[in-house]
Specification:
Layout: E1 5-7, H1 16-31, E2 39-42, H2 44-53, H3 60-75, E3 88-94, E4 104-108, H4 114-122, H5 125-142, H6 148-162, H7 172-190, H8 198-212, H9 216-225, E5 233-239, E6 250-257, E7 264-272, H10 276-281, E8 287-288, H11 292-295, H12 297-314, E9 318-325, E10 328-336, H13 341-353, H14 359-364, H15 368-375, E11 378-379, E12 389-390, E13 392-395, E14 398-404, H16 407-415, E15 420-424, H17 432-437, E16 440-443, H18 451-459, E17 462-465, E18 471-473, E19 478-480, E20 486-488, E21 492-496, E22 501-504, E23 509-510, H19 513-520, H20 529-544, E24 548-552, H21 556-564, E25 570-574, H22 584-592, H23 596-620, E26 625-629, H24 642-654, H25 661-673, H26 685-690, H27 694-711, E27 717-722, H28 728-749, E28 757-761, H29 764-768, H30 770-773, E29 779-782, H31 784-792, H32 796-802, H33 804-809, H34 826-840, E30 845-848, H35 856-865, E31 869-872, H36 877-888
Parallel strand pairs: 14-15, 15-16, 16-17, 24-25, 24-31, 25-26, 26-27, 27-28, 28-29, 29-30, 30-31
Antiparallel strand pairs: 1-2, 2-5, 3-4, 3-5, 6-7, 6-9, 7-8, 9-10, 11-23, 12-22, 13-17, 14-21, 18-19, 19-20, 21-22
Helix pairs in contact: 4-5, 5-7, 6-7, 13-20, 15-36, 20-36, 21-23, 22-23, 23-27, 24-25, 27-28, 35-36
């Protein structure tokens, strides 16, 4: 028989799949002997069964009743008993943390009778009515579907009528009146009454949490964080402890280290006379955790001891929620904490230095995506003037955008291509779409552990919280600074998440410290801080990885930069980029040539220019392989646009003049070369087989550049790559021509020039016949961009604009197959080609040169597939180096803070 409920004393952190992150970690803390309010967890299996059928699985409530009876016996109180009620919290708890995306209901068990008993038992009438107010508000919005803003408006109106700023200044009678207002609101909105039965409250709350797994914001968050939709959520049911019992009580959120910077020492927020939801919501600005040492020294000392226990036990940064109830400390939750990219690298290095983790584990705990963030530019504020305001630096980075004040507006403007900054008093889970769309988040309330800060950090989004100097008026769509400056919606602002500052206008950017290190070496920063941690991670990745990392580079400057960034060669040098600018005229002459002699003259004029290009790149990469792809795109791309030519000719004729003869000749050529689907037309190897002299000119330029470098004492390693091969006979014909030309160059220069010849695998047929193609190819390089297009039947330029967003929304794609390799389809073709190619030629060198070569997830696939190297843009080379190292340590335990 399937079991659906586990007591906190029965589980552990290794049961997160079943008990969810919250339930498994509560069980782990219970096992460690930490002060955890007792409770039990309904499993993710129960959730999945409920979502599949629409009703709770058989036997679930019998199990819940049995565990509730045991909880009541241990507490000496019954749920909702009139004279001294046991109260419960009901919280979501999926395997991966989804902060604020699902539901929580506190104070289950209160009703019109038990609220009086709670007041008497606690000695605080205000506390009892405050707790009842919270229950009716949470239950009304979460379970009964009343818009939460309706409750908020009633609360604001009550505070306005009483002339108070915070709800803590409302009296017991105020709160009792508010409870009645809330209950009437529920009845008016739904036609139902707030349930007075504690058992009904519990059952409906649990089912509402189950249902919240499929809520819109939860689904959006999962897509953003790549969390599977079929996991379901567990539900924890726990005895309530109260932080809203007065000045000797409170709630807080603590991190064992700073999740923004990685610096050691306790970090967090604390709010007296408050429940945990108040801290996270940012409704009132909390005090720094260090203040707790003054407010409650005994509880603070115990908290510090428990934090150290948890960090050493989890061997990682821990995120902790706690409540102090009249001086007694209770631990309500722990999990591996979300952190910024900067903090991830610093933490990994420091935990390794402390001996808590190994260097391999330290490497696995950082990511290429995080490294890319650290390479983004930073603000240069030296000449920009004073900031508009300062707040808390919740999530670092530099972002510029138009200020917007509502989530829907952020989404609308971002969809239109505008960069925006979402400005709110505080964020709620309903703001998630706008937070995703925005470049940065700015709030006037809340601390570093508020909803805005936690979610932004997890997404790597720039965030400044608690900018109290700002008065944010979301209805009027503007904010006002301390000196009276008014910033209207649409005004461009700059948000510095590292300094916690907000500036008017667009602040200029400068290279980040990490980019300066990669470009120039350690410099003054040496091995300190973030730069030092990044250097250590890259160095260790280089020692453990088996994948080489090359760069896609077309100029000597790009090649030199790639080498500084750690590239071990060039995996793709695109020769078509050498035909642009002033050289385009020579290509036009080649295309328009009416005789072989005219074509040969045009090619002869291109030859020395190509040779010069290749010589410069080979010099920059001396001693390292340089894979040069022969001309790939269709020739009409080098001609003027058809519409532009037609308009020029028509305009000339309309003026009664003669159109330019060259324009007429070009238009004739464009019409002649027009193709319905040029991606699948005359391009790649087909050009070389149809256009006489084209391959010979390019190969001669390569061969002469190699000879020039050899004669200069260099060590050039040029490789010639033939694009878009679909049949071995195509490659054989081109390879024979390559050999003839290189032999001519060797005789003419008296230098032996020998360049390996290989092909790009970018057509499904090439992958499926790789064994035969390997008879002629000395290396393969997967062109995964075109291989993805031809496997899916997509034209990338068309489909990304037309329907990709709908496919992503509907879950057809977890991510775009042009960003992360489609393992099931394209990946299978890669696997076939690797196996068959090496069966024919065991020493076949195989790499990838599409954009996927710099994508972290794809790098892991290429490592597992047995490739020799990946190649990507110079900027992504450090990312690929890091991920290649992590891929080699796939079995090492990482730090999943999702």
């Amino acid at each position: 028989m399937v079991r659906y409920v586990y007591d906190f004393t029965e589980g552990g952190r290794d049961m997160a799949d079943l008990l969810g992150g919250k339930g498994s970690n509560l069980a782990e803390m219970t096992r460690l002997g930490l002060p955890v309010p007792p409770g039990f967890t309904l499993t993710t299996e129960a959730c999945r069964a409920f979502l599949a059928t629409g009703s709770e699985p058989a036997g679930l409530w019998e199990e819940v009743s049995a565990h509730l009876s045991a909880l009541e016996a241990s507490a000496g109180r019954v749920l909702g008993q009139p004279d001294d009620p046991l109260l419960l919290s009901v919280r979501s708890g999926a395997k991966f943390s989804m902060p604020g995306m699902m539901e929580t209901i506190l104070d289950i068990g209160l009703n019109d009778d038990s609220v009086l008993g709670l007041a008497k038992a606690s000695g605080s009438e205000r506390f009892a009515w405050d707790s009842y107010r919270r229950l009716v508000q949470m239950f009304g919005s979460t379970v009964m579907g009343v818009d939460s803003s309706s409750f908020e408006r009633s609360l604001v109106l009550m505070k306005d009528l009483r002339g108070v700023r915070d709800d803590v200044h409302l009296t017991a009678s105020d709160l009792a009146e508010l409870v009645e207002t809330y209950k009437n609101l529920i009845h008016l909105e739904t036609g139902d009454r707030f349930p007075q039965s504690p058992a009904e409250q519990l059952r409906r709350a649990v089912l509402a949490v189950f249902e919240s797994w499929n809520g819109e914001r939860a689904r959006l968050y999962r897509r953003r964080e790549h969390i599977a939709d079929d996991l379901g959520t567990a539900v924890t049911v726990q005895r309530m402890v109260f932080g809203n019992l007065g000045a000797d009580s409170g709630s807080g959120v603590a991190f064992t280290r700073d999740p923004a910077t990685g610096r050691p020492g306790p970090y967090g927020d604390y709010l007296s006379d408050a429940q945990g939801e108040d801290v996270v919501a940012g409704i009132r600005n909390a005090v720094p955790l260090s203040e707790l040492a003054r407010l409650a020294p005994g509880a603070y000392a115990r908290l510090r001891a428990h934090m150290e226990t948890l960090e050493r036990h989890y061997r990682d940064l821990c995120d902790i929620e706690f409540t102090i109830e009249r001086g007694t400390l209770w631990m309500l939750q722990t999990r591996v904490g979300k952190r910024t990219a900067e903090a991830a690298f610093v933490l990994a290095a420091e935990l390794a230095d402390e001996g808590l983790i190994t260097p391999d584990e330290a490497l696995v705990r950082v990511s290429g995506e995080g490294l890319a963030r650290l390479m983004f530019p930073r603000f240069d504020t030296s000449g920009h003037g004073d900031p508009l305001a300062h707040g808390l630096p919740a999530s670092p980075g530099a972002a510029v955008g138009a200020a917007v004040f509502h989530s829907a507006e952020a989404v609308r403007r971002a969809a239109a291509g505008e960069k925006v900054v979402l400005v709110r008093q505080e964020t709620t889970p309903d703001d998630l779409p706008g937070m995703i769309a925005a470049q940065a988040v700015l709030t006037s309330r809340g601390g570093k552990t508020s909803h805005a800060a936690v979610v932004a950090r997890g997404m790597g989004k720039v965030c400044v919280c608690g900018a109290e100097e700002l008065t944010v008026d979301t209805d009027a769509r503007r904010f006002t600074t301390a000196d009276g400056t008014v910033v209207e919606e649409g005004t461009v602002v700059s948000v510095d998440g590292a300094a916690g500052a907000v500036y008017s206008g667009a602040v200029p950017l400068v290279d980040s410290a990490v980019i300066r290190y990669l470009e120039d070496g350690p410099g003054d920063e040496g091995a300190r801080g973030t730069v030092g941690a990044v250097a250590r991670a890259l160095s260790h990745a280089d020692t453990v990885r088996s994948l080489e990392v090359r760069a896609n580079a077309d100029t000597p400057e790009d090649a030199a930069r790639a080498r500084r960034f750690g590239a071990q060669g060039i995996g793709l040098c695109r020769t078509e980029h050498m035909f642009l600018g002033e050289r385009r005229k020579l290509v036009e002459q080649m295309i328009l040539a009416g005789t072989d002699a005219e074509r040969e003259r045009a090619l002869a004029a291109l030859l020395p220019l190509q040779r010069q290009d290749f010589a410069g790149i080979l010099e920059a990469m001396d001693g390292l392989p340089v894979t040069i792809r022969l001309l790939d795109p269709p020739l009409h791309e080098f001609l003027p646009d058809h519409t532009d030519l037609a308009v020029r000719i028509a305009a000339a004729e309309a003026r009664g003049g003669e159109p330019d003869a060259h324009d007429v000749e070009l238009l004739t050529a464009v019409n002649r070369m027009h193709e319905e689907n040029p991606m699948l037309g005359l391009r790649g190897v087909r050009l070389g087989l149809v256009i006489p002299g084209l391959v010979a000119m390019q190969v001669r330029a390569i061969g002469e550049a190699v000879a020039e470098r050899l004669l200069a004492g260099g060590a050039p390693e040029a490789e010639i790559m033939v694009p878009l091969v679909g049949d071995v006979r195509e490659l054989r014909l081109v390879r024979e021509e390559v050999r003839r030309v290189l032999a001519d160059v060797s005789r003419a220069t008296d230098v032996t020039v020998d360049c390996p010849v290989g092909t790009m695998i970018e057509l499904p047929r090439a992958a499926l016949t790789a064994g035969r193609i390997a008879e002629e190819a000395e290396f393969f390089s997967f062109g995964t961009n075109d291989l993805t297009q031809t496997t899916w039947g997509f034209s990338r330029d068309d489909v990304e604009a037309e329907f990709f967003s709908a496919y992503l929304d509907k879950g057809v794609f977890p991510t775009s197959p042009f960003e992360t390799l489609d393992r099931d389809g394209v990946g299978r073709l890669v696997g076939i080609a690797v196996a068959e190619g090496r069966a024919t030629r065991p020493d076949l060198k195989i790499g990838v040169c599409g954009e996927h070569g710099g994508d972290p997830d794809s790098v892991h696939f290429f490592h597992a597939a047995g490739l020799d190297y990946v190649s990507c843009s110079p900027f992504r080379v450090p990312v690929a180096r890091l991920e290649a190292g992590r891929a080699a340590l796939e079995e090492t335990e990482g730090s999943d803070s999702r």
